[in-house]
Amino acid sequence: MKTARVPVPLLVPAVLGLLFLILPLIGLLARTPWSTLPARLAEPEVVEALRLSLVTSTLATVLCLVLGVPLAWMLARVTFPGRRLVRALITVPLVLPPVVGGIALLLALGRRGLVGQWLDTTFGITLPFTTAGVVIAESFVALPFLVIAVEGALRGADSRFEEAAATLGSTRWTTFTHVTLPLVAPGIAAGAVLCWARALGEFGATITFAGNYPGITQTMPLAVYQTMESGDLEGAVVLSLILLVVSVAILAGLRDRWLTAP
């Protein structure tokens, strides 16, 4: 097959855009202290930050699945007043500065917040500056990714299978669990991976709502920030490298779905 010649006005900015994205990653790899990398990876602070990041991002993903899949189904399958407004509100965390999201969470779920005050006085539950607060902050910023992915999968699924199940006497719940979920399972999986990746890299809302306490709320991004602030550039590079490896692994896992276009 003959390859079409790429026009120069398109080729030059395309190459510049590629270099713009790749050069920072090359710089990170070039400054990585490879000789001391194994020892730094074994440091208790690094291991604890990584453990906490993996645990909280996984719990946040589970919470997003429980809340997000039904929400996406309603947006895709149910017509109700204000549906466009609800969809717009769901996407707000995508464009909202994470620090602002953290402040909003404090005002809603803090000890003097709209709901947090009731949780504190009634059940003695305090969310800010706890590990649970990290999960809440990560879920807040990651949930839209899951909802958008699952809603898109639902809209692209063939609704005739659901209609056939309904004509055979299946209830809506049975149709949802036995027909709809298997149809959109790849979309749910892709949305969950994106949700998990976003939760893993969350910084602004977490540090505002949950603080930066080692072993309690200090996730990998917060550890990178603290290490940089202390003047340990090599340590920050090592932590950043871990996040880079995780990101590349996620993209590699999704390559068959999004990165192999004809």
From TrEMBL:
It holds the Pfam family BPD_transp_1. Its main location: membrane. InterPro entries: MetI-like, MetI-like_sf, ModB_ABC, NifC_ABC_porter. The chain crosses the membrane at residues 54-76, 88-109, 129-150, 236-254. It comes from the Bacteria. It is found in: Cell membrane. Residues 50-252 form the ABC transmembrane type-1 domain. It is a multi-pass membrane protein. The keyword Transmembrane helix applies. Keywords: Cell membrane, Membrane, Molybdenum, Transmembrane, Transmembrane helix, Transport. The keyword Iron-sulfur does not apply. PANTHER family: MOLYBDENUM TRANSPORT SYSTEM PERMEASE PROTEIN MODB. Belongs to the binding-protein-dependent transport system permease family. CysTW subfamily. Part of the binding-protein-dependent transport system for molybdenum; probably responsible for the translocation of the substrate across the membrane. This is Molybdenum transport system permease. It comes from Actinoplanes subglobosus.
